[in-house]
Amino acid sequence: MKEVDFMLGGMISKIRKDKNITKVELSKRTKINMGHITHIEKGERNPSHKTLKSICKALDVPYQNLM
Fold this sequence. Notes:
The chain has helices at residues 3-18, 23-30, 34-41, 49-59. 64% of the residues lie in helices and 0% in strands. The chain is mainly α and 67 residues long.
């Protein structure tokens, strides 16, 4: 696991929690499996650009902010 991967996942997790959105809700909004979201937030998996864009849209944050 690269430090950058964990940082991205950590930022996604923080934004999600700051907006009071559960993983279940994020999963519903993005149609991404909740387990996959968990792995992304822990830095265990890298999201594809399509997945990251979907997460950004669901969290209402600009895609560029997480790149």
